[in-house]
Amino acid sequence: MPIQLKIASDFVCPYCYVLEAMIGQLRPALDIEIEYLPFELTEPPKPQVDTYNDPERRARYAEELEPLCRQVGLAMCLPPNIVPRPYTRLAFRGLYIAREQNLEEAYCHRIFRAYFEEERDIGSLQELVSLAAEAGLDAAAFQQALEGGQWEAEEQEAVRHAKQDLDVHVVPTVFLGEHRLEGGAQSAQELKDWLLAHAE
Q1: Rounded Cα distance, 102 and 171, in Å
Q2: pTM over 0.90, yes/no
Q3: What is the phi/psi pair of residue 182, to 5°?
Q4: Which residues, in sequence order, are CB contacts of 18 under 8 Å at separation 6+?
Q5: pLDDT (tens digit per residue) in 19-71
Q6: What is the 3-class SS of the chain, one letter each residue?
Q7: Burial letters for 73-90: b for 16+ Cβ neighbours within 10 Å, e otherwise?
Q8: Between β-strands 3-9 and 32-38, what pairing exists: parallel, antiparallel or unpaired?
Q9: What is the CA angle 96-101-106, rounded to 5?
């Protein structure tokens, strides 16, 4: 029986991308399924932030994230040169379209990689349409769904649910049954130990 995880994350959170890479390292030994829970770090109309020109953030990333990236083999731009940091509302609506076609994980991985490795603006509709096609979705149908507001209410309710009902305050937060792991793990082995300790 697979280990079924729910992960509250945002596509512009580098710790979330590291966690995904750690799960990828564990997959040869563990059967893991992921359901992503949208968690917008910056919800419109709150002003977007400039992470690229933030020296404090750069220093923290260099200390905390660069060693983790080397450990899991990620070549991340920390932070990406996208100013300001994109809103992720549209990208999360696209997640629901991908989920309908059993392409949720492929889509999410493509969005993470585009932002953190290729420095593409994942807040742009046209970029998202292109990335969705690369993940295996029909580009025209994807664009039509987003332009028509499909999944808008569901996505906003999911963000509210994560922040209020589930009381998520940091991403990534991993849910395995009644257990939660906040902030990810420091290594794939640490993550594996936590999963095995709480898997039924």
Answers
A1: 24
A2: yes
A3: -100, 130
A4: 65, 68, 69, 72, 74, 184
A5: 999 999 999 999 999 999 999 999 999 999 999 999 999 999 999 999 999 99
A6: CCEEEEEEECCCCHHHHHHHHHHHHHCCCCCEEEEEEECCCCCCCCCCCCCCCCHHHHHHHHHHHHHHHHHHCCCCCCCCCCCCCCCCHHHHHHHHHHHHCCCHHHHHHHHHHHHHCCCCCCCCHHHHHHHHHHCCCCHHHHHHHHHCCCCHHHHHHHHHHHHHHCCCCCCCEEEECCEEEECCCCCHHHHHHHHHHHCC
A7: ebebebbbebeebbbbbb
A8: parallel
A9: 80
Q: Tokens 């499909």 — which residue?
A: 150
Q: Phi and psi of 138, rounded to 5°? A: -75, 115
Segment 128-173, tens digit of pLDDT: 999 999 999 999 999 999 999 999 999 999 999 999 999 999 999 9
Q: What's at 68, amino acid-wise?
A: L
How are strands ordered across the β-sheet holding 173-176?
32-38, 3-9, 173-176, 179-182
Which structure tokens are listed for 24? 């990828």
For residue 92, the one-letter residue type is F
